[in-house]
Amino acid sequence: MLFRSLVAAFGLQLALEVVASPLLRDKVPVKRDVPSTHRLHERHPPRTANHWTKRERLSRKTVLPMRIGLKQRNLDVGHSRLMDISNPKSANYGKHMTAEEVIDFFAPAQSSVDAVIDWLVSSGIDRKRISQSANKQWIQFDAAAEEAEDLLVADFYYWEDSTGSHRDIACEEYHVPAHIQEHIDYATPGIRLRANNAVKRDLSKRETNKISALREGPHFTNTVAHINAVNDVPGVNSTSCSSFITADCIRVQYGVPNGTTAAAGNELGIFEDLNDHYSTADLDAFLAAVYPDLNIPKGTYPENRLVDGAIGSYEDIVATIGSNFGGLGLESTLDFQSAIPLIWPQKTVLFQTNDEYYEIVGTQGFFNTFLDAIDGSYCSFSDYGETGDCTDSSCADPVYPNPNYPSPIGYQGQKQCGVFEPTNVISVSYNGIEDLLPNNYQYRQCDEYLKLGLQGVTVVFSSGDYGVGTHLGCIGPNSEPNVGIIFTPGFPQTCPYILAVGGTELRRADPSAPPVEWEILEEVATTQFPSGGGFSNIFSVADYQADAVNAYFDAVESSFPFKSYNQTIVNGNFDNVTDVNQVYNRGGRGFPDVAAVGENQLVVYGGQFGTIGGTSLSTPVWGSLLTLINEKRIAAGKSTLGFVNPALYQHPEAFNDVTEGNNNGCSSPDQTTLWGFPAAAGWDPVTGLGYVSLLLALILGYYGLN
């Protein structure tokens, strides 16, 4: 059936012309009478006319792959279910769901399925032509245009975008029976017009430095703050942890024992994108030089789980498309060289995502193709009026087969849906900007992290390296990120269903005193870069953190030189924030949740030793710690940790509090100083609850493992 494959007519269009005709229709259409039994379900918004022009009407025999989106159940109670199974005090703690159980949990009621199918059959659609999608959210069938028009009391036309280069099929409005409205979300093709994602670029003629400049894309970046050269590698020893971070330093600082087991399926997953690739040569050299005592064999690399034509290592990039496209990545270097020795003999998994074209050029949207690959139901998941990957210009995700560039730079296969299992812990050191993406795009993606949490998956995100701002600055005039003053949260670290990690640095309490081997160092908020943190503009404060956030405001809010507002910002529109001194949303989800060392990690990069800083270090450190805890739980026959935030906020005593530092990152209105939040006793939006102290002992004890 047509809905099982992409249809090539008109590029990305949905229709296949069975009978070609130069005529618009055999006769001029007459406005349809809407039966009294039907109700208007959707209509084009007024802004459509600004970007699209209605052209010829479809031929009667044009075949359309119709999909009726059913309203899902339990979207309102999914949060409660996750909080219950994530609360160590609950009898249901750790009773995670399978992927199939999650699908069934959110699946539409059978009464909705039956009602819609009965309506279709009574309207003349043969029952044998109708099926239900694998994720149970869609009723599917092929229909000639005349059937679809009669069914929806609508008229389908070709529409042309303002550039004249892209056409799509839609109706201006459609109707359904009154008794059916409560069962369906929307129909497609319907009123939605999809933006053209094809941006033609001749990558082969680009200079390497120009390609590199595009690697961050318009919205998203990794969270590597900087790299410094290291000349005195022999100086790396048991007294140098304030200058050179190694796995041994982290073990001593956080009380982490050496790994001893490698449970199958408990590998640490690490996400990479934006043309950032680890080097096998660098990884071999690093492990041999710094960790000879671990006896990690040469050739110990992450398992490749390559999404949508992605290429794994830098050496694979060179072998596949040559060396002119860059690709040697600081982010992936830091991720794998910090994580592998921490969790050894457990392994890592590389989730390299998107073909090299999209990795270099970037897209407005991010992470959706990765989530598609580890959860097939997400490919067509409907939530907040969003279904599947975004095709609107405001949030456009990669399109496959890639219409912009041939293989091997452009992936010509179908988008991958559910081809990989998610790992128990996924570390992600990339993020973007809340106000540059539609709210519904972020809500839908955040709900997917909820669904992963229900399955026992922990998703760990970096909080960012720009304090209360982002890599594009702070919010200024016309709600644009630039040299502005309104604090600018990132995304997805503001989603309440992920663990957001801030950065710290280690220092000796008395630098003038003789060094002591493996001493526990002081830990303060990073000073070489401001650790990302603040309050979301679109997600409300999470219930598990409300007391901690309120305590922070009670303690320090009166000392702020700036004011707050308390409202949800819709699609980046700050018009209702009228006071120039109002710079953050007091009712927003606070981040980060926790912190870890984010400065001076020793690495080998491009064959040379150096140190790297950024919350890109803090994140795989936390991912590694959680992976080690899961090792113990699995060995004891327990479930994985899953969504850890409620447990962590219940036990602030498991942390060493960081009370020194700030994350200043946005200018004051008079441009004379930088504003941000101060660290304070308890949770704060600089280092969260702090860094781990008794965490392993606490979790092992409370969860019955010692």
Automatic annotation (TrEMBL):
The active site is at E331, D335, S616. Residues 1-20 form the signal peptide. It catalyses: Release of an N-terminal tripeptide from a polypeptide. The chain crosses the membrane at residues 688-705. Residues 244-704 form the Peptidase S53 domain. One of its GO terms (molecular function) is tripeptidyl-peptidase activity. It comes from the Eukaryota. Its cofactor is Ca(2+). It is found in: Secreted, Extracellular space. InterPro entries: Peptidase_S8/S53_dom, Peptidase_S8/S53_dom_sf, S53_propep, Sedolisin_dom, Tripeptidyl-peptidase_I. Gene3D superfamilies: Peptidase S8/S53 domain (3.40.50.200). Its main location: secreted. Keywords: Calcium, Hydrolase, Membrane, Metal-binding, Protease, Serine protease, Signal, Transmembrane, Transmembrane helix, Zymogen. GO terms for cellular component: extracellular region. The keyword Cytoplasm does not apply. Binds 1 Ca(2+) ion per subunit. Its EC number is 3.4.14.10. Ca(2+) binds at D657, V658, G682, D684. One of its GO terms (biological process) is proteolysis. Secreted tripeptidyl-peptidase which degrades proteins at acidic pHs and is involved in virulence. This is tripeptidyl-peptidase II. It comes from Hypocrea virens (strain Gv29-8 / FGSC 10586).
